Amino acid sequence: MGYERACTTDTAAAGAMSGEEAVAYLKSRASLGSKLGLSRIRELLAALGNPQKTLRFVHVAGTNGKGSTSAMLASILAAAGYRVGLFTSPCLERINEQITVNGEPISDEALGAGMGALKQAAEAMADPPSEFEVLTALAFLHFVQCGCDLVVLEVGMGGATDSTNVIDPPEAAVITAISLDHTAVLGHSLTEIAAVKAGIIKSGCDVVLYPNPSVERIIAEICDRQGARLHPVELARATALKHGLEGQTFQWDGEELFLPLLGGHQLNNAAAALTTIEILRTRGWSVSPEAVRLGLRRTRWPARFEVLIREPLFLLDGGHNPQGAAALADNIAEYLPGRTLTFLVGLLADKDYEAMLRRVEPFASAFVAVSPNNSRALPVEALAEHLAGFGKPVTICGSVEQGVEAARMLAEEGGAVCAFGSLYMAGAVRRCVLGEKALREESSNGRI
After folding, report:
1. Architecture of domain 306-444
2. How many Å apart are CA 403 and CA 364, to the nearest integer?
């Protein structure tokens, strides 16, 4: 049965919305804020018949790398012939991007039909569910409708009390790189944050852990308590062979593989994904070496040291914390030695932006400051004040669109532009640089 036939939707169902109405309703729930805890999502899903109970999952948590790792896993499993759901956050352009099956975003029709059913259930609740809780429930409904064999489920924030953690024990729980982020919510030390993220570990599941000496002991203790099997990732098994702006070739246990995502940190993420595939094989999932090869080659994960255009060179990176900025700095040094860069910067006020800016400042010839379209955005004037402290030219722009044009004009001969700081401005940057037509073609090819 083809994917299109499997994902049929009853658009005539009572309460069905248009795609635009569904998005508007979902965004209206943003005013409720972020609500950690599982009571609301459990009540909502129970009213919908607990669709998550019929699905099988790979659950992915972490501070950095969980999106890239999830994208690789979903692509490999799809290449192996499975119907694979992928739930990620946030979106770059459209909410549809966050819910995909074999690379195909949820249609506006399916979005509207699912949201219609969800609205009735949500509005009957005394404690209304948040925007993310509704979106999580919608994803489960869609994956059931599409008959998914397996769902790669990315945690939104943390782990233990994230709405995705309502699932039964997954086929594998994957914990990628952990660093200090969302400290006001998750804790002020790596061990505190690791304990929260380890909340996705459930009795009897297999756990894949990205190496970090600061958190390995606490994760191992939680695995012991839960009767879960711990599988540390051996990063050295992924050996870099060659790389360029089109991607990188590496060796994994003697097999030569190509990955279009750039940077040494992406090889580490690939090691986590490939270790997870090995675990899935032991649980009965059939994934051939050819599926691994094709799946990695086909992986698309925009806004991660992404080359948007070559002339002039325009890069986009969604690094949004100090660890992400450090990876960006490493990539610049590796891929663009000696190049001068104009940085287009937009940041959120609740991030450690001073540490982020210190990481990339040595590579900057000039800065263009903008404010992402998000309620948590750092005001552009405050950002410009911080940037001015580096003693390099700073241009303030009133919109991301104006910032893109200003950065292009400021880029020196032979230099490049790099937009970074927040995923919440990445979509606008891509739209400005690539244009609407290119984005539509990209989406139709399953790239987002």
Report:
1. Alpha-Beta Complex (3.90)
2. 16
